[in-house]
Design goal:
The chain has 374 residues and is an alpha/beta fold. It has 2 domains: 2-183, no CATH class; 187-373, no CATH class. It has 10 helices and 15 strands. The longest helix is centred in the last third of the chain and has 34 residues, at 265-298. The relative contact order is 0.08.
Length: 374
């Protein structure tokens, strides 16, 4: 029953997650203003249909891998038993506050978000990579399970009162997670997620190397421009990106006011964004090719012995992983106490690379077209 249910649930997550869903912190008991923030997912398990309410915050899109991994691990171990009940309120990538004088008659599952209880929760509470805080007269009458989090306050659970505070977090972790330490359980999830990202980047790199191979001499000319005129390429790409929106709008207006151009408006609307997207992709692949070549030429000996800098299907995948390395390392370092500053630096580097890399493709393409025309 658990495996069948989680399969349907994971499928529903990939469909419902949307980057347009906002609201990092939500308060239960207040009027809901965002009609897209809640989803009701119907799942069919062996003992009948169940409904799961899911709310996605702005971090939800980034955490779906750890979400699925954590749910499979938790539910398969039957440490929660949520699917045996009728109500499961799930919050992904957002914080939840249960207000005073508010009673929730439902089980709550928090994923990559914190739960603050000022009222009463008549049900079980589970947290995956999130913290629990029970304040004032707040109470949780059901069971509490946590993977990768900690708690403060007190709660009533199956007739027992268990103290949750930072000084006893290790002992609490042993009591309520059934084998998972509350601090490092989330680390295991992040490690699995990063491993999956590396595999995905390697696969995309193989596809990208095939696309570059189709470019032939055109790709070689672009690579030469990127390597010899890197700074100029980025500046030209930035200028092209800034001017692209006005040029696009002017083109639409010019075609609209001319009788001959009216049939071409649709073509213009489709072709220009497609060409722009292609140059962005090209920039990522070209930088990956260059970075992969540098890594295989000057990097670790064990890579040089097994991979060749002259082969696209070696350099592009390695370079693509190199581009994603800062953000992946930041995720891993966030597990280790005292490395917050290093994680921030890595995030800044990673975001900078993600912004500059596509500009390389636009700049190199423009410079090559200019050189061949002039």
């Amino acid at each position: 029953m658990f495996i069948k249910a989680i399969t349907v649930y994971a499928s529903a997550l990939t469909i419902c997650i949307s980057p347009s869903l906002q609201g990092q912190e939500r308060s239960q008991g207040e009027t809901e203003t965002d009609p897209h923030s809640n989803h009701v997912i119907n799942v069919q398990v062996e003992d009948g249909p169940k409904q799961i309410k899911v709310s996605f915050g702005e971090r939800g899109l980034l955490s779906w891998i750890s979400t699925v991994v954590g749910l499979v691990d938790t539910l398969e171990g039957k440490s929660l038993g949520f699917l045996e009940d009728d109500c499961l309120d799930t919050h992904i990538g957002e914080d939840l506050i249960i207000g005073e004088d508010t009673e929730i008659n439902c089980n709550i599952l928090m994923i990559d978000g914190d739960l603050t209880v000022n009222g009463i929760v008549h049900g079980d509470v589970a947290l995956i990579n999130g913290d629990l805080s029970v304040e004032g007269d707040g109470r949780v009458t059901g069971r509490i399970r946590s993977i990768g989090g900690r708690g403060t306050g007190t709660h009533s659970s199956a007739g027992d009162t268990v103290g949750l505070d930072s000084s006893h977090s290790h002992q609490v972790g042993l009591n309520i997670t059934k084998g998972f330490n509350m601090g490092w359980g989330g680390g295991v999830i992040k490690l699995v997620a990063v491993f999956g990202q590396v595999l995905a980047l390697l696969l995309l790199g193989l596809v990208g190397s095939f696309l570059l191979k189709l470019g032939g001499s055109y790709v070689e000319d672009l690579s030469t421009i990127v390597e010899k005129k890197t700074g100029r390429t980025i500046l030209v790409g930035l200028l092209v990106a800034v001017l692209m929106a006005p040029v696009f709008l002017l083109g639409v207006v010019a075609l609209a006011i001319s009788i001959v151009g009216i049939p071409l408006i649709l073509l213009w609307i489709l072709v220009l964004p497609a060409a722009l997207s292609l140059t962005w992709l090209l920039g990522i692949l070209l930088v990956s090719k260059w970075l992969g070549n540098e890594i295989l030429t000057r990097g670790p000996r064990f890579l040089q012995d097994r991979l060749s800098p002259g082969k696209l299907y070696h350099t592009v995948p390695i370079g693509l992983v190199g581009l994603g390395a800062p953000l992946m390392l930041a995720s891993l370092f966030s597990i280790v106490p005292g490395t917050g500053a290093l994680s921030v630096v890595l995030v800044v580097i990673g975001i900078t690379l993600q912004v500059l890399t596509p500009l390389v493709g636009m700049g190199a393409t423009f410079l090559l077209i200019k050189r061949r025309i002039i």
